[in-house]
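Why do we care about 3D structure at all? Because function follows from shape, and shape follows, mostly, from sequence. That is the central idea of this module. The next example makes it concrete: a single protein chain, its amino acid sequence, and then its structure expressed as tokens.
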Amino acid sequence: MSITLKTAQETQAEIASRFKARRLAMDLTQEELAVRSGVTLGSLKRFERLGLIALDSLLNLASVLDCLDDFDKLAAESQSAPAAQSLDALLAKPTSRQRATGRKGRNHGL
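And the structure:
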């Protein structure tokens, strides 16, 4: 378990900054990237300025900027369980979660 001290807005700004840096490193203007990706110029400008963009547009930009594979790890399940810090911590963890199917003590109109 990791602790994140960044806000969502800070993360948005960082991603937008990285995309802009990548665009500039590839010597692409905003207009060229917009045309190649199919993202409107206005959307690209708003993304670079505010970090706001639709997911499909972000993925289209990532494809042109050759970083689409970076999204494969996003919200992926871990291949291995996190290591327990102690035997007590491991034993204290529930083994499975049961879904509640109703409320106790109600006859549900029967």
